[in-house]
Amino acid sequence: MTTSKPVNASTLKRTLGTTPRQSAKSRLRGIEAATESRHLIDGLGALDDLLKKPGLRSNQRFLHQTRHAMLSRLADLTGTDVASLSTPELSGAQWVTRFPGSNSTDTLADAFRSGVEAFVGAMRMGGVSVTISATLRPVERAYLMHWSWIIARLGGNPKDVPQMDSVDILWDHGDAAASMQAAEDMVQRYGIVAEPALTSRHTQGLAIDMTISWAGNLAIAKRSGAATTITSKPRTGMNIDLIAVGATYGVIKAKFGNDPPHWSNDGH
């Protein structure tokens, strides 16, 4: 887990200290800045401890954003930059559990959610096994997934990866093979099967990944209520007749063939 780098005591004194020539108002501002800085340092330590608790995974995005805001304020007060106050953590499989995505339809955009829930309900009523693996994906998770794939599978240079303020990760291990292996470990743990986009229907709450299967013929209702029976194969989410039924609910199968679980509002 990322931790805040302690600010050197002499640096604080040099930056925040007062001199006899300062006016009373200047000295007061200096004292206030020093006090706020020390509170921020204490707060960052407590926040880093909080981030280590596994029970708070669902709140990690908010906590990391809060941490970055505190670091930015501390940087302003001390006249330094954020990077000098924080120690990036090397990439690797440990990042996969951070910024967790959702597999609940509750997190989907309202207009898309209603169609998804109706479609899933119709499938389950017909005896279909539906396992939802992903809905809304935080932009931080999309960033980690995208760049781990670029480095591991497309040979991207880890030194060229742009930083994201709320993700204190170091992609470059100082060794090309180690950097690529760490990225590959992330790809494997994420279970990525196609290049993830930085901005996608998942980050917009307009996509869902589902594993679908059934046995025998499937009797299912379209959005209009009209009943249809699917006798064709395969008996999975790749079935062309099921895909047609999904479209009546506004749930469109991925238009690219390398991501079988993916459905969205427009096939992207």
H/E series, N to C? EHHHHEEHEHEHEEEHEE
Q: Can you list the strand order of the major beta sheet?
A: 4-6-10-9
In DSSP terms, counting alpha (H) and pi (I) runs of 4 or more, how many helices? 8
| Unreliable segments of 5+ consecutive residues | 1-20
Task: State the share of residues found in helices, binned by percent.
Answer: 40-55%
The strand count comes to: 10
Structural class: alpha+beta
Sheet-strand content, in percent, reads: 5-15%
Gyration radius from CA atoms, angstroms: 25 Å
Largest sheet: 4 strands, antiparallel
The coarse overall form would be elongated
Overall number of structural domains:
3
The average pLDDT is 85
CATH architecture grouping of the largest domain: 2-Layer Sandwich
CATH topology of the largest domain: Muramoyl-pentapeptide Carboxypeptidase, domain 2
Distance between the first and last residues' Cα: 33 Å
**CATH C-level class of the largest domain:** Alpha Beta
